[in-house]
């Protein structure tokens, strides 16, 4: 069988631990037999990031801006324990955060639904897509550990040298901690436009939530700019499409989401989206059953799994050499999403059709009762067979063939 040709490359970003193992298996068994895979490869494994002083992460982000499509394996964001474990030079920042800052995009995460796995929230009948702002908040913060009494201040000095604002954050009588976060109007406006465009593209209402009653400058700026963009650019288009834009406080949004039947896009600030996407994915079944794509305002797309590197399974695999029952579905869908987008941008119907076939083969295996252990524990109906990752991928490959 002649393999499908690719005109332009996909930026491929390898990762860490168990997901790195699955990454290679997916390529070898599910993609390369059918596609003449063309990628520009970057090793974002923690050891290579450390060896390059994290330069490789920045190079990968710039490469996505050049080729417009990237696919990323899950990576470790090191804490103090990881610094010691891997003998790192420093506690490197999240590669996801770095790439998101380079692309200035919005992360859209949606559950992959199958009939055998029912949402924990019984009212949910349709997917809920989390739109996560991919800039600012604690991911671009400045922190300081206070060890002795003193005064912390928030100061803004204009380029002219004029001090325009100074206010005491806290007078410390003893040890404590300070955190400073920021955002930019331009990034918030891009976030708003991406959310409105995405909602129109999928034909779903858009919800947006912050805590502007408490954060009367930071959060209120999000609320004001979202409304301004909607009124000036999208109100007529939403009305024509029969869609609604709805703003509420985030605590009210959480209550409404739980009582809803789903079927909408929920826009959240960076940290809120990080937390809520995990909540939504878990309630729908599993973090390994959630798609994630970063969409930038200038037409760049980065696909990844929404979960981490599955460290617990990695330790077991490394010690025993035996394959674990780790769910590869989100990583498979990251590849299928990137292949489909590459096909769309390059006008390759064959590549798009292959991406559809790959997803269908994956979901049909689950619907027929063949699944990894995390799904087998949740699935309903008879004839369920729990398999390890290698067996699951082999089953998908047989259906592709």
Structure description:
The structure is a single chain. It contains 14 helices and 16 strands. The protein has 401 residues and is α/β, with parallel strands linked by helices. The protein has a ten-stranded mixed β-sheet, sandwiched between helices. The protein has a two-stranded antiparallel sheet with strand order 6-9. The longest helix is centred in the middle third of the chain and has 24 residues, at 218-241. It starts with 9 loop residues before the first strand and ends with a helix. The mean pLDDT is 95.
What sort of overall outline do the alpha carbons produce when their principal axes are compared? globular
Low-confidence stretches: none
Instruction: Provide mean pLDDT, rounded.
Output: 95
| Helix run count | 14
* Quaternary organisation: single chain
**Which structural class do the helices and strands define?**
alpha/beta
Strand order of the largest sheet: 2-1-3-14-13-4-5-12-10-11
Q: What series of H and E elements makes up the topology?
A: EHEHHEHHEEEEEEHEHEHEHEEHHHEHEH
